[in-house]
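Submission checklist for the structure archive. All mandatory fields must be present; incomplete records are returned to the submitter.

[x] Identifier: Ragulator complex protein LAMTOR3
[x] Organism: Trichinella britovi
[x] Residue count: 76
[x] Sequence attached
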Amino acid sequence: MKIFNEVIDQKMNNFQKLQQHVIELASHVDQLHEVIFTDLDGVPILRCSIDNSAEMSIKTQFLASKALSTEKGTVH
């Protein structure tokens, strides 16, 4: 169990480093408040908020644009 916990801690540490790196890079882009990485179904995998207050205001717009892009990409 100890080895399992160490592996999980290491993965979380790497995840946090990646998140900090994305935030650092994104902070150089004007008017960019958040970067969201998703899977193919639109489920957020990694969310990096440059401004913590932006998370709630962007969520609705993101979900609406994701639905629209999914609809446009669907072949009938």
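[x] Structure attached
Curator remark: Residues 2-73 form one domain. The chain has a mean pLDDT of 73.
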